[in-house]
Write a structure and sequence with these properties.
single chain, disordered N terminus, alpha/beta, nine-stranded mixed beta sheet, 12% strand
């Protein structure tokens, strides 16, 4: 069955999302009872690593790895060197998968082995590596801080690009002694595009495939997101909105004839043609993953200002950090013209809007391979029951062609 979940379930899931934003995400008040309760809920995905939870039971080879960033975060990586029936000494090129906002590495394996990109790549001979950014269920360590310390959460997607991706990709590059095929979805494309402007990162990448690519958010049309931006929900969370008021926030967010909170997913991402809502209880065993309030504020800055730039600390803060009044932009034209790029985007995506994607393409020096799926929304590119045929076949064609490699699978 593919369709919207029941009203009661969507409002519950929306309330859980608000709890996650306002209670579990750091940068605001001290932990409340609601925050503690939600932390207990989120631990459903904690026993054992991702390999143990999802891949090993299905017969896929999988090992856990830990890397430390330059600012002390301990990140979890998973390595799937080949498919269930592959040969250990016949590994293809390394491909690195980077998840999006409120997701973790599990998102690449959360559907069946025939539908999930992580399994499909492994079964087609790729040497698969999975990234998990700081703060997710799989990457909650730090050399100094605990998840209960405010400084543990003092970061946005800027640090995810500059520190997390640098550490994870450097590790894979060192282990494999090979340039890496980069695949990102949503926030994973924001991180990727920012990181590809950095010479120390782009030199490790052979090609990049971006699902729902985002660098600009000028034309976001998701009702929930626009309402949250207008209400300055990021600032309310930052200053510690009392948990007792979350129901009122929910009612305010949904008190708009243009905002359909009966369908949570479409309110946040736009319509998704092929998302299997009958599996939502299973998805909620793993997602949503935590992120930081500062990250949310950075994303809201992108929407309000129409820029693809570093975090805005205000004039005085920017002068202290950047030596200038305004945060420096990430210059897409600095991404090497020789780097092959593939982009998959959808006509119903309310976050990675077609107009914004076209602006991104225009600012690149290269001409990316483009796959436009008219009836796909934001989540369809990773969770559609038809994504293998609609998206992944073409994505793998690109990865193989740019690598000069052909799988025997």
């Amino acid at each position: 069955m593919v369709g919207p979940p029941p009203l009661a379930a969507t409002r519950l899931h929306l309330l859980l999302l608000l709890l996650l934003l306002c209670c579990c995400l750091a940068g605001g008040a001290s932990a409340s009872p609601a925050a503690a309760a939600l932390r207990r809920v989120s631990l459903r995905a904690s026993p054992g690593g991702l390999c143990q939870r999802l891949l090993l039971p299905l017969g896929y080879p999988c090992t856990e790895h830990t890397v430390e960033t330059d600012d002390g975060f301990l990140l979890s990586l998973q390595h799937i060197p080949h498919g269930k029936n592959g040969l250990a000494d016949n590994a293809g090129p390394p491909v690195f998968l980077q998840h999006g906002l409120f997701q973790g590495g599990d998102t690449w394996f959360i559907n069946s082995a025939e539908q999930s990109l992580g399994y499909i790549l492994a079964d087609n001979g790729f040497d698969v590596w999975i990234g998990n950014v700081r703060g997710t269920h799989w990457s909650k360590g730090h050399s100094t801080y605990s998840v209960h310390d405010k400084l543990f959460w003092d970061w946005s997607w800027q640090e995810l690009a500059e520190y997390d991706l640098l550490a994870m990709l450097s590790y894979v590059y060192t282990v494999t002694q090979s340039k890496i095929l980069y695949v990102g979805h949503s926030q994973g494309t924001i991180m990727g595009l920012a990181a590809l402007t950095m010479p120390e990162i782009v030199k490790m990448i052979s090609s990049a495939a971006l699902l729902c690519p985002i660098s600009y958010l000028n034309h976001v049309s998701a009702g929930f997101v626009l309402r949250a931006v207008a209400m300055h929900l990021d600032q309310a969370c930052y200053y510690g909105h009392p948990s007792a008021e979350l129901s009122e926030i929910l009612d305010s967010l949904c008190d708009d004839e243009l905002l359909d909170c009966n369908n949570l997913l479409s309110s946040i991402t736009g319509e998704n043609c092929c998302f299997n809502s009958s599996r939502i209880d299973y998805y909620l065993e793993y997602e949503p993953h935590p992120s930081s309030t500062k990250n949310l504020r950075h994303l809201f800055q992108m929407i309000r200002k129409g820029t693809f730039a570093k975090y805005d600390y205000g004039w005085w803060g920017n002068i202290k950090r950047y030596g200038q009044l305004h945060p420096p932009p990430f210059d897409l034209s600095s991404i090497p013209e020789s780097l092959p790029i593939w982009m998959g985007y959808g006509g119903l995506d309310a976050l990675a809007d077609v107009t914004d994607v076209e602006r991104t393409v225009k600012e690149l020096r290269s001409t990316p391979d483009l796959l436009y799926v008219r009836d796909y929304g934001h989540i369809d590119f990773i969770m559609s029951v038809k994504a293998k045929d609609d998206v992944y076949v073409d994505l793998m064609r690109f990865l193989r062609a740019k690598q000069g490699w052909h799988s025997s699978y």
